[in-house]
Amino acid sequence: MSDAAMADAAARARQLRREIEAHDRAYYELDAPDIPDAEYDALFRELQALEAAYPGLAVPDSPTRRVGGRALAQFVPVTHAVPMLSIQTETDTTAAGAAQFDARVRRELELPESAAAVEYVAELKFDGLAVSLRYEHGLLRQGATRGDGVTGEDVTHNIRTIRDIPLRLRDETPPVLEVRGEVYMRRDDLARYNEKARVRGEKPLLNPRNGAAGSIRQLDPAIAASRPLRFFAYGIGAAEGWPPLATHAELLERLAALGFPVCEHRLAARGWRALAEFHARMGAQRAALPFDIDGVVYKVNARALQDRLGFRAREPRWAVAHKYPAEEARTRVVAIEVQVGRTGALTPVAKLHPVFVGGVTVTNATLHNEDEARRKDVRAGDTVIVRRAGDVIPEVVAIVPEERPMTAAPQAPGGCAPLHPPFALPATCPQCGSRVVREEGGAIARCSGGLVCPAQIRGAILHFAGRRALDIEGLGEKLVDQLTVAGYVNTTADLYALTAPMLASLERMGGKSAGNLLAALEKSKVTTLPRFIFALGIRNVGESTARELARHFGTLEALENADAAALEHVPDVGPVVAESVRDFFAEAHNRAVIARLIAAGVHWEESEGQAAAPEGPLAGKSFVLTGVLPTLKRDAAKTLIENAGGKVSGGLSRKTDYVVAGEEAGGKLDKARELGVPILDETQLLQLLR
Ligand code: IVH
Which of 97, 114, 359, 399 could form a disulfide with 92 if both were Cys (CB 3.0 to 4.6 A apart)? Predict the structure, then answer.
């Protein structure tokens, strides 16, 4: 081989490495991939080919060293030069947890009450796997798990596959530097990975933490390489030839400068109140973070104070983990029920043995739809892991296959069979027996019964009577059940045909109650056009769309006769909503009900005044509410948001700023996740309002 050819190859290899490293940085540090995957792969393969052809070119920090390592026969133990400590846990999840830590620190330091507030750094507590990365003269030499803190396992082959871990320190070559931090997986990366795994018929990963920990503790690096692992640095172990730094905050800055990802959500501040605020603020953002955290970590900032505080057992006295309520728990599925919604949508719901998770007791978890239920293969009797995803709606994450109830005696040569068959939606509606239909290509199955289905009639009437619709006071679930069972009410128009003797025949509807209901019905006849349109319960038409439709068309007749093109001129109305409106008014039955309502005296004044421009902390922010909140009624939540200048709308889109979700929220929650709209629970909403 000629020297010139060799020199050319060396130059090209250097250039390729520089390019690949720059693309890696764009992808992992800046979160902004700057070339298509295929082009990246081409650069990578070219470098691999060059290094294979000229073995002299291979350097230990080449990006190619991240992949293609050989599988190990067994793990090799590593004794940590400086033990990897564990961390004290503060389980009081309120602000008091921060106050207690601060009080402890001040006591240990024997600070008088008059002494200045202690300075701390607050960080996130990442939910992954702790590792120690040993760099010698600037090059990554070894990656190890924490193990028992003294001895871990050598997982260098897997660590090398993590592209946001530098193979070489930026601009520095200390003889020894051990960088410590957390290997983790982002939720969106996990979802994408699982989607691909599903297509390939492979087993999906249970959750980000198991995904991270499971990938690192594999003998074959090809497995780790195939998984979307990431890293955050939060400390150091042994260091030689590296200047000691005065504070933890400086240490984090230095680690970032060396090329390590350091999480931007951190804070240096004095006193426990700032810590408690960080805890609350990150708690509010927890659901919207791209990765899981199970708490925050507080560390005394000054190294000198850390040294004075020292350790107790394996835990430093200068740090604490301030937790959030657990998000996952195990429980048993008592049964799978199928609920029929107001629009006829069928939702499988797992009835659970009550379990405390994410700060509340959960007895139901949604399985979303038939495909989901079957993909997770949830059956009655199964032990399942439930999760309040981002602390919101409980859902079944996965089953625990080993715990599945089986037949006592072997059924076949294969052994015992599961006691229950796979889940399937019924072919007919559990409420009315009508055929269940599934829209083409859609995941949602619906009862075709429309207004013969008691669940839909009941839902339609409750919706019509709701506070934001015609606001019929006293017409709640129980009474609606009685009225429909008695056959008195089959459509909303029947409400206005109710008489005192009819009501008197119902249980608990003696004298005064009957009179009150009739008075409330009378009162409800005076309404507004937006409320009336909303009350009709047209699919996909929420309160704010109803308001826009009323404003745009001015009269009910104009709306009834509008074609798709005219409808799509209304803000917020696209082809889907337009079709729903057209379908609704195309139904003779619906027009008949409207005519009867108007004949009964339901009417509205023309046009409501325009609202003033919003002011307040949430000015200009749009919210979508879904599900049942633990303490706030929908209307109360809505009023609070509107009083703070925010806007509550029914239609979720990319432009929505926040989704506030409670128990039993359904498709909107999925859609919010899909669109990347931040999801809040009630506590987080209240925090935002403060
Ligand atoms: S510091 C001072 N900081 O928590 C004790 N640990 O450490 C050394 N963890 O499994 C650890 N996020 O992986 C520290 N910002 C953070 C952390 C963190 C998560 C984990 C760590 C270990 C456990 C106890």
Answer: 97
